Amino acid sequence: MLENPYAPPETSTHTSRATAETSGVAAMSVGKWYFPYLVLTLLALLHVGFSTPMDGSGPGRLFLIVLSFFLHALLVVWLRGFSRLALIGANAAFLLLASFDEFSYSHFDVLNFLLHAIPASVLFYWHYREVNRVKLLMGSTNAIEELESEIQKKGESTLRLNALGVAYGQKEQFAEGIRILRRCLELYESNVAAQINLAWILSKSGNSADADVLYEQLLQKPFDITSIAVLKSNYCDHLARNHRTSECQTRLAELESSLSSGKKISAANRAQLLNAIQHTRTLLDAETGSSPGTSV
Question: Per-residue b/e over 174-211, b at no fewer than 16 CB within 10 Å?
């Protein structure tokens, strides 16, 4: 997954801020139908799977059925639009077909696994290549031009638009960065990185009111551990920039405590967050006139 689709943490007043999106999948969401659908799918898999001839061992068959189920659950979350409907339809058709005695597969578990493993492998490989390509472009000295050229050639995607919005923000071209990130959210409104980056760029551009509203909304969402830490770090910087010293100090203490608790945050992300905390403390020290603080 793209380790740094957010702007890098701010270590000076001239650079941008934020850290890492943990997962492309985590940025996706589904409706209320998702969990009931998964329960029905699992029950159907188990029923059809164990109704077919048991050529292999029970535990081995159960393992493949459960693995197929998890791949299916992941793909349904990741895919959207026609691709998602095609997967659900293919899975339902296969289960229905395999339930007839005349069409009872002796290797149902293997075939069902392949039905999901092949598209999952293709999708992960494509995503891996795309992520590395975008990371390379973001690191370019002409990141904006390179990313815009990539979008012209390959079309819009949340990954490319998010990276372009960050690139504009890093160059302090805030109006264009905001426009690009909002376009990214039009394509997929639940994209975690784009939401957090939009709040960051609104704050940096001086649009504190809109940034406040967005931060308050995002802080209520159940993001993964790393995204929550990134969000809280950005919010602390936003508070310091807007002279809300007391609230910022409280939030910083909470963030430092969570970082020292041993929760699963990568070493690279932890280092970026600690640098961001140090920068925020420098902003606070400038406000209060105290000596520079020390990062944890």
Answer: bebbbebbeebbeebeebbbbbbbbbbbbbbbeeeeeb
Task: Tell me the pLDDT tens digit for each residue of 195-220.
Answer: 999 999 999 999 999 999 999 998 88
Residue 40's Cβ-count burial label (10 Å; 0-12, 13-18, 19+) is: exposed
Question: Of all residues in the chain, what percent carry a pLDDT higher than 70?
Answer: 76
The three-point CA angle 111-112-117 to 5° equals 95
pLDDT of 104: 55
Instruction: Please report which helix (H) or strand (E) contains residue 202, including its range.
Output: helix 192-204
Decide: residue 273, CB within 10 A, 0-12 exposed, 13-18 middle, 19+ buried: buried
How far does the chain reach from its first CA to its final CA, in angstroms? 27
Residue among 205, 265, 275 at smallest CA distance from 236: 275
Nearest to 59 by CA among 109, 111, 112: 109
